[in-house]
From TrEMBL:
Annotated ranges, domain ABM: 1-87
Gene Ontology MF term list: monooxygenase activity
Provenance organism: Streptomyces calidiresistens
InterPro entries per record: ABM_dom, Dimeric_a/b-barrel
Gene3D superfamilies on file: 3.30.70.100
Database matches in Pfam families: ABM
Keywords: Monooxygenase, Oxidoreductase
Top-level taxonomic group: Bacteria
SUPFAM superfamilies listed in its UniProt record: Dimeric alpha+beta barrel
Residue ranges of the region described as Disordered: 87-107
Protein's recorded name: Antibiotic biosynthesis monooxygenase
């Protein structure tokens, strides 16, 4: 799943803190297989969330959960625009050698 979130100018740090706190809960769910928060370079306030779920029904059940609804109530005032796209895995390529935990800026 890909979620693009445009955050209200000046509220980026608040959004990042909210997302990280909620991500700790999402990480504990057995049907969630990982997530990333990405910030666009050169486009202030634009973020992308990539998250992997077992299947669409488990993702939809998560969307309806009380925890997710509570998160969304906090998110909406921070959100200027956005979109969600369900993606279908086609292929996966992992690095031959682990890159470690370096950030992109360190590469």
């Amino acid at each position: 799943m890909l979620l693009r979130i445009d955050v209200v100018e000046g509220r980026e740090a608040e959004f990042e803190e909210l997302w990280r706190a909620h991500a700790k809960h999402v990480h504990t769910l057995p049907d969630n297989h990982g997530q990333q928060l990405l910030r666009s370079r050169g486009e202030r306030g634009r973020y992308v969330v990539l998250t992997d779920w077992t299947d669409e029904p488990t993702f939809r059940a998560f969307e309806r959960s009380e925890e997710q609804q509570a998160y969304l109530r906090h998110l909406w005032p921070l959100r200027a625009d956005g979109e969600m796209r369900l993606l279908e895995p086609m292929d996966e390529m992992t690095p031959a050698v682990s890159a470690g935990t370096r950030s992109l800026e360190d590469r």
